[in-house]
Amino acid sequence: MNDHQFTRRGLLGGAAGLAAFSLAGAPSGAFAAVPPLPSSPVALNVVDVAGNLALTQRAIESYRAANPKLVSRITFTKAPAPELPGKIKAQQAANRVDIDIVLTGIDALSAGVDQKLWQPIIPDYAEKLPKLDDIYLPGAKAMQGLAANQGVCIVFCQAGPLLEYMPDRVKTVPKTAADLLAWTKANPNRFMYARPANSGPGRVFMMGLPYLLGDKDPKDPKDGWDKTWAYLKELGQNIEYYPSGTGPTMKALGDGSRDMIPTQMGWDINPRALGVVPKEAKVAALEGFHWILDAHYLCIPKGVAPEKQAVIVDLLNYLLSKPAQATTYDEGYFYPGPAVKDVPLSMAPPESQKVIEEYGRPEYAKLIADTPQQLPLTPDKLVYAFARWDQEIGAAKTK
């Protein structure tokens, strides 16, 4: 089960005005590095490994509706992040790439950078895109720096790690990482988190621990995480198993088989809005925590036809516009959502505003303002951390 199985698609009004964002009318040869737009419409195959379609699918479909001369149809598929790089690599080796767009978090982005799977979008196509440094929020700008120019950040959030719990079952809420470990010992198999390689909250929990534990170098999982790896092993003695994605952890919290899980703001808001987790669930931040930032990216696999690349870059230009960005508030799935500056909640569709007003938490604004924010691990170090977690922590207990 993947991170996106408990989300509904993002909300967007009609396609009115979208044509203004298309560069179909740009003069021929104006952007020498960018392939020309096609003379007949192309079909695009989009694969989502991050749950991103909950935020962007309606915007993508509205772009297609507004640009019938560029796009004939779009196929949407969802897949687990760990499986995608191998599939793309096999297609590239066979010279038969049939995946045109990948919507991914830092996980598959990192694996693809490591394996050189992605088409460099920046700087090759920068002339046809907005100046990213000018439009991005500071955190999104920092997250774009992790993309190694091979993906473009399209949504952003200060993710976590936070703890989510049911107040009727957790009477003494842990205040520190040591408290959490003690709680799991006193309440075996009542805490769980998902495999970090395929779970945003699981990944953020893992990357947040070095800051909570005062580890030697939070940016170096190989030589700087001695306390973290020891903590995760000890914690694992009190965990029955690790699900393969976030969805089962939310379901377990909701059905009462677990009492507490790691979460992030969007994974707190959205499952409660959908009724998967009871509305009365609470969240807590451990003392000394740092936000680990998160983002989703659009990537183009190497081997995609030039005429398709031209359309994808044009689509990307629209996805970075304020009207499209405003829809990424969705139902709180990746709260806040927008990567672009000056896109307040008041610009979001009324349905999105209603969900966040009802299920959001007033303490989030203060936590965002007052808590240090950290980039996730760089792609090479994240790949290492995933592999080490799989081998040393999750090997015998992952479902």
Amount of helix = 25-40%
Rg from C-alpha positions?
Answer: 21 Å
Low-confidence stretches: 1-32
Helices and strands, in order, run as: EHEHEHHHEEHHHHEHEEHHEHHEH
Mean pLDDT, nearest integer?
90
Explain what you see.
With 399 residues, this protein is an alpha/beta fold. The protein has 15 helices and 10 strands. Strands 1, 2, 3, 4, 8, 9 and 10 form a 7-stranded mixed β-sheet that branches. Helix 1 links the parallel strand 1 (42-48) and strand 2 (71-78). Helix 3 crosses helix 15 (379-394), helix 8 packs parallel to helix 15 (379-394) and helix 10 (265-273) crosses helix 13 (350-359). It starts with 41 loop residues before the first strand and ends in a 5-residue tail after the last helix.
Tags for this model:
alpha/beta, seven-stranded mixed β-sheet, 10 strands
Short précis:
The chain has 399 residues and is an alpha/beta fold. The chain is built from 15 helices and 10 strands. The longest helix is centred in the last third of the chain and has 16 residues.
